[in-house]
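Q: What structure does this chain adopt?
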Amino acid sequence: MSEIAAVSAYDEAGIQVTTENGKMSAHSPFPRGVQFTPVPNPLLAGLLEEIDDIAELKVTLRVVWALHRQRSAMPSVTATELCADRAVGAMLKASGGQLEELVGRSLECAVERGVLLAVPASGAGETRYMLNTEPVRAALVRKGIELPEQEPHAGAEPETQQAESRPDLHEGVYKVYEQNIGVMSPLIAESITEALQEHPESDVIDAIRVAVEANARSWKYVTAVLRRWAVEGREGRESRGSDGKPERYSEANRSDEFIERYLERQRARGNR
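A:
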């Protein structure tokens, strides 16, 4: 059985997997090496309590899965793409017009609930649906797309409400990243948010500048710098190197052994 066939069988049946001998088994839905899809915590907490339509829940989870598989900075999906997904038809036990109606209604409910964003396409294009996270909303606003104001949802966790009610809390870090490294995907935005929970904002900004000075414009390098500072401290970081520049930007610092070892380990694991 090909890899695509195996994935299709798992997606459509939900519990079938391919064992080592190539046969299907219903006893091991999560074999070794199974991949995971991150799901926002509110969707597994307060929002899960509110969703009483099983079709809406299934479509929402499938959208989260589909968005996670994309490698674009702004992952999105259309109703047509969902209807063409065989797993969607199988899990809703529908086809044709009935499937289109179920998918369309489920997407509308998810948008009304605040889980998804409906972004109208320009011209004759089809509406695209995105996960309603603050990084996604900020990216759409930067593109000039107007979004409706949304109150924190009752199903969201308290800490999520607090964070989303202050979208400009760490806006400086995001701007510095985009101005110096590149377009910020939702995944990178999440990583930056996590870093800000462990390091002061000034340290994160300085680490981004170190990466730029070292001509290593990647978030992995920034993370390596932050880890080094966490281990070794930042004492004496303003001292001058032999080239007259601050030591943290000097040539010696660019080839810092700690960072190089970290990056080598990442490359060895296939994370480039």
